[in-house]
Amino acid sequence: MIEAVKLAITIVLLLAGSFFLIAGSLGIVRFPDTYSRMHAAGKCDTLGLSLMLAGFVIYQGLDLVSIKLILIILFVFFTGPVAVNAIIRAAINSGHKMWTVEGWKEWKKETVKKR
Amino acid sequence: MSIFEIFLYILLATTLIVLYRVIKGPSVFDRIVGINAIGTKTILMIVVISYVFERPSFLDIALLYAILNFIGSIVISIYVERGGVTE
Fold first, then answer.
1. Of A26, A37, A81, B9, which has the fewest CB atoms closer than 10 Å, so is most exposed?
2. How far apart are CA B76 and CA B87, in angstroms?
3. pLDDT recorded at residue B29
4. Cβ–Cβ below 8 Å for B44 and A83
5. Residue B60 sits in which domain range?
6. Residue A16: is its pLDDT beyond 90?
7. Chain B residues near residue A11 by CB distance under 8 angstroms
8. What is residue A2's predicted lDDT score, i.e. its pLDDT?
9. Position B3 in a domain
10. Which residue blocks in chain B are alpha helix, DSSP H?
11. Residue among A15, A20, A44, A45 with most chain B CBs within 10 A, to mutate
12. Which percentage of chain A shows pLDDT scores above 90?
């Protein structure tokens, strides 16, 4: 009985994590600007990985293997947003243009010219 | 066939979706963001593989890959920003 409940909670957490990962991937492909793509990549990936690994922790129980999984969750929880923040700082310092609602025609002209 | 094998295919599909942005991306920063996202999905794929094949020692490789993914993103962004790592 308890095994079945554990497996059900694990499957629900894994499905929730896969939903966030798919949403983040579609955001990376579909958003118009570099900064909005980073907005999609920074949060959805961290939350999806945390949810899927929490599902594996519940499936495993508490022993040495689940402590390793919790270490991976903590490390990615602290370092994933920091890495995306460093990439955003590099993009701002090298003068990358932002997409705005008013000036998107000029933005598109410059970006297409740069390609 | 384990039940976790389905999630392996889901992760492979999301990796292929992000790979479009890495190949097509207009600027360098789009490619860096795509590579960072692919690294995060690779950590998850290693963990799922360790449960499909029932080998818990693969989790050490996943932890190592998390550390390498972070250091790689930081170093590549510093390199693109300043034009060199040592200064």
1. B9
2. 15
3. 87
4. no
5. 10-82
6. yes
7. 3
8. 86
9. no
10. 5-24, 28-52, 58-82
11. A45
12. 37
**Angle at B17 (CA atoms; ends B13, B18), nearest 5 degrees:** 120
- Mean pLDDT lowest among A16-20, A49-53, A94-98, B19-23: A94-98
| Contact with chain B for residue A52, Cβ under 8 A | yes
Whether B57 is covered by a domain: the verdict is: yes
Spell out the domain ranges in chain A.
2-114
CB A20 within 8 A of CB A68: no
The answer to whether residue B44 sits within a structural domain is yes
Residue B1 has pLDDT above 70, yes or no: no
What is the CB neighbour count within 10 angstroms for residue A112? 9
The verdict on residue B5 lying in a domain is no
Residue that wins the pLDDT comparison between B35 and B81: B35
Per DSSP, the residues of A15-51 read HHHHHHHHHHHHHHHH-SSHHHHHHHHHHHHHHHHHH
* Sequence-separated (6 or more) residues with CB below 8 Å from residue A66: A56, A57, A60
Tell me if chain A has a CB within 8 Å of the CB of B49.
no
Task: Calculate the average pLDDT of chain B.
Answer: 87
Question: What pLDDT does B87 receive?
Answer: 55
* Contact status, residue B66 vs residue A75, Cβ threshold 8 Å: yes
- Residue recorded with tokens 């995060």: B40
Which of B51, B70, B78, B80 should be substituted to probe chain A, the one whose Cβ sees the most A Cβ atoms within 10 Å? B70
Would you say the pTM of this structure is higher than 0.95?
no
